[in-house]
Amino acid sequence: MSKTDLFNIAAMLTEDELEVRDQVAEFVNRRVRPNIAQWYDDAYLPVELFPEMAELGLFGMHIDGYGCAGRSAVEYGVAMHEMEAGDSGLRTVVSVQGSLAMTAIAKNGSEEQKQTWLPKMATGEVIGCFGLTEPTAGSDPSSMTTHAKLVDGEWVLNGAKRWIGLATIANVAIIWAKASVADAKAAGVHPDGDTRADDDMVVRGFIVPTDTLGFRAEAIEQKLSMRASLQCDIYLEDAKLPVDAILPNNAGLRGPFLCLNEARYGIAWGALGAARDSIETALDYASTRMQFGKPLTAYQLTQKKLADMTIALNKGQLMALQLGRANDAGTLELHQSSMAKLDNVRVAIEIARECRTILGGNGITAEYSPLRHANNLESVRTYEGTDEVHTLIVGQRLTGEAAFS
């Protein structure tokens, strides 16, 4: 049992869930912890880990069939908890590949699209990315300007995306763009019963191989967070695609939002992995760091910090577990994911920062994880919905009033 599991949460997990936890924890201990400080310092994404991550079943872990592991929501959650105990950037790899790119195809794609892409993505042979956010459209994706037009039997995409994970190494991109209802009809994917006018614009997803002429990705550099990861800009300049590149299901923002909900769920678990690792690092350090003739752990102020942080951690872990049980039962609601993502990330950042204070000056070095976790979590706090967005989702649930604008 982890030193921080004062509520014995491990006893609430099944044998299968514990097995997944231990397998991923062993991978992180063996392959990530010895190297992550250097990777972070070098701003290097260790793509050499991808085959082993795929072998563990982490890519599309929660998807049934198509070569995917078909694990439960809780099993996926504990896996993300252990991955982010290593590094948020590496957990993000799993999220971008599985919760975003693969889920977009699994939930919105045709059977042929699923058969074509998902098995290769599950093995890591194909890496995917998810292009929704734009330079001027983050929290408000409805204002996106990327558009797709059907011209002479081909889709032509133009626009730009920003903060897109893995784009420079991806083989395929899921690009969300606005298209007219008339063009969607011509492509044979107009939903039955849809009464929108032909000239109305609707958000649709497109499968875009990254070797498509007119597709270009550039890594965003000089980041202060998520350095052992890749976030990129994407440019689309008359990128031409076959008519069947469109994802046929879930016209409108419901399509990408289904994927974002999957990612938010993983974050609710993952962020607490970073928090747990920060506490364990601070606890180990304080138990051997001698000041005034005794270890830091013997001082009341240090014990108060450790106790407060561990109580907050355990409360967040219980919320994540309840979220997972609801997800597996099919009763998970949008506001619940928002509550968990919002609060667990906030709590994780505060824990990581407080743990840095226990480490003193040594805490600003790469030898210790808390400040690296805190820096990474600043990005986690922003993506898949800012604090403000999730606060308003919860507020709408409470009041019945949408206050987003």
What is the element layout, followed by pairings?
Elements: H1 15-32, H2 36-42, H3 50-55, H4 73-86, H5 88-108, H6 111-122, E1 128-131, E2 147-151, E3 154-165, E4 172-180, H7 181-186, E5 201-209, E6 215-219, E7 231-242, H8 254-288, E8 290-291, E9 294-295, H9 300-329, H10 334-359, H11 370-382, H12 387-399
Parallel strand pairs: 1-4
Antiparallel strand pairs: 2-3, 3-7, 4-5, 6-7, 8-9
H and E string = HHHHHHEEEEHEEEHEEHHHH
Mean pLDDT: 95
Task: Bin the helical content.
Answer: 40-55%
Q: Assess the beta-strand content as a share of residues.
A: 5-15%
Q: Provide the spatial order of strands within the biggest beta sheet.
A: 2-3-7-6
The count of β-strands is 9
N- and C-termini, Cα separation: 47 Å
Low-confidence stretches: none
The SS-based structural class is alpha+beta
Tally of separate helices: 12
Looking at the chains present, what oligomeric state does this protein adopt? single chain
Describe the sheet with the most strands. 4 strands, antiparallel
From the alpha carbons, calculate the radius of gyration and give it in angstroms: 22 Å
Form type: elongated
